[in-house]
Design a protein that fits this description.
The protein is of the alpha+beta class and 476 residues long. It has three domains: 135 residues, 2-Layer Sandwich (Beta-Lactamase), CATH 3.30.450; 150 residues, 2-Layer Sandwich (Beta-Lactamase), CATH 3.30.450; 143 residues, Reverse transcriptase/Diguanylate cyclase domain (Alpha-Beta Plaits), CATH 3.30.70. The chain has twelve helices and 17 strands. A six-stranded antiparallel beta sheet has the order 3-2-1-6-5-4, sandwiched between helices. Helix 2 runs antiparallel to helix 4, helix 4 packs antiparallel against helix 5 and helix 10 packs across helix 11. The N terminus is likely disordered.
């Protein structure tokens, strides 16, 4: 026979105490019976919160008698076997002595013991435990019922939020938009405001931060080796890491300022780790069991959404990039270049185009083989990426021919970059290149086709002139 699930929490959620206040229905239910049975309507509940007991007072309870902090051991010691605390001894917990005896009753329901009922009298009394037992039991039941109702409402709300978050996360295939939705969902569902999603970079054996909230923007440039940090530990072990005190963890890498605790959840697909969800907080005990369950529930949805988005991004990249060099392919370059030409013509901005051709590439392939030729193409693409700006558009135009489109750049700027690239290739690679440069200056009106023709003509002149040189198009 399976053991029944215990739905009672280990302690009363502190936030409920603030919600209950003087309006907690328990007082309306038990105050008349308490006065009739116990002869007093001045009482309070001491409910468990961690290692201490937190007071919940009945309406009209004297503020001077409200305890500031109560240690359970000291309370039980003062009450003794009789369960009675003398009025003068109550001053250990509050600013004033109690007017009479304070009788302590333990609240208990099966194995659940949420705290104590304290009844205040104006004189010394003889405790009649049997007379009080039905009332104490009723309070325990009412407390349990109220908590169960609150827990049911909370779980229903959590489920609704999780379903909503899952729908939102799964509704997008674009990776960056998916990650933004994930971080938004974490904030709304689990109250997480400092988080990062890291993607496994298999080529570099490291984690790269792809999206984040609550950090400085520069953090996105950080690359974390898989053998470093709490995130690296999560990625390599495939196990959730919860660190409640980062100052005591030797693997902690400083992230958000004021961080106290961190949780790193490996994101898995097809039995391998594809990323890590990393969460930091400046609040102590932030990652309680309830919040961990919420985050882990979301992590499954995040893993699936992340995997689908990565596949979509890779498929999209394959459609627009050259498989060998990683640069844009001809078709996608023409789409992007057309937009830049329109923009340059509309706003009067200069635009420069370089067309690059590897000198005697066929002879190189015949001599050293196509694998070496492929490596040269990759290396040239790498040099182009190193020397160009992020706004420049690079592409493999076909075979051993490449193009660079430089927005906001006049002919002089284009020639400077082309000359620098030619010199670096001659010095660092086993080949040379010829480059033709053409520009659309301020006020010009050129089509993309005309700009390409001009650059191609300049390239032809560079090759005819002896190769390994840069030639600018000149209007005759």
């Amino acid at each position: 026979m399976e053991k029944p699930v215990n739905l009672m929490p280990g302690e009363i959620p502190f936030e409920l105490l603030e919600e209950w206040g003087d309006h907690f229905f328990l007082w309306e239910e038990i105050s008349p019976q308490a006065k009739k049975i116990l002869g007093s309507d001045t009482f309070l509940l001491l409910l468990r919160k961690g290692d201490t007991l937190t007071p919940l007072t009945s309406p009209g309870f004297p503020s001077s008698l409200i305890p500031e902090r109560v240690e359970e051991k000291e309370l039980l010691k003062l009450a003794g076997e009789r369960g009675v605390i003398r009025g003068k001894d109550w001053k250990r917990f509050s600013s004033e002595e109690a007017p009479g005896d304070v009788v302590l009753y333990s609240l208990k329901l099966r194995e659940w013991q949420p705290g104590y009922l304290l009844v205040f009298y104006r004189k010394e009394i003889v405790v009649d435990q049997e007379r009080a037992n039905p009332l104490v039991m009723a309070i325990s039941y009412l407390l349990a019922l109220y908590l169960l109702r609150q827990e049911l409402a909370r779980r229903t709300e959590d489920l609704s939020l999780l379903l909503k978050a899952a729908n939102v996360i799964g509704s997008q295939l674009e990776l960056d938009q998916t990650l933004d939705m994930i971080l938004d969902s974490l904030a709304s569902v689990a109250g997480v405001y400092t988080a990062a999603i890291l993607i496994v970079d298999e080529n570099r054996n490291a984690l790269r931060i792809r999206a984040q909230r609550g950090y400085f923007s520069e953090v996105t440039q950080i690359v974390i080796p898989l053998f470093k940090g709490i995130t690296g530990r999560a990625a390599t072990t495939g196990q959730i890491q919860v660190v409640n005190d980062v100052s005591s963890d030797p693997d902690y890498i400083r992230g958000a300022p004021g961080t106290v605790c961190e949780m790193a959840i490996p994101l898995k697909a097809e039995n391998r780790v594809i990323g890590v969800l990393d969460i930091e907080s400046d609040q102590e005990c932030f990652f309680d069991a309830e919040r961990q369950n919420l985050i882990v529930s979301l992590a499954d949805q995040i893993s699936l959404a992340l995997y689908n988005s990565i596949l979509y991004e890779r498929t999209r990249e394959m459609a627009i990039t050259d498989y060998l060099t990683g640069l844009f392919n001809r078709r996608h370059f023409l789409e992007l270049a057309q937009r830049e030409v329109f923009r340059g013509e509309r706003y009067g901005h200069p635009l420069c185009l370089s067309m690059i051709d590897i000198d005697h590439f066929k002879e190189y392939n015949d001599r050293f083989g196509h694998l070496s030729g492929d490596q040269v193409l990759k290396d040239l693409a790498g040099k182009m990426k190193e020397k160009c700006r992020k706004i420049d558009i690079l592409a493999r135009f076909g075979g051993e021919e490449f193009v660079i489109l430089m927005p906001e750049t006049d002919l002089h700027g284009g020639l400077t970059l082309a000359t620098r690239l030619r010199e670096i290739v001659e010095k660092e690679l086993p080949i040379t290149v010829s480059i033709g440069v053409a520009s659309m200056e301020k006020g010009d009106s050129l089509s993309l086709e005309e700009l390409l023709k001009r650059a191609d003509l300049a390239l032809y002149q560079a090759k005819e002139g002896g190769r390994n040189r840069v030639v600018a198009f000149k209007q005759e």
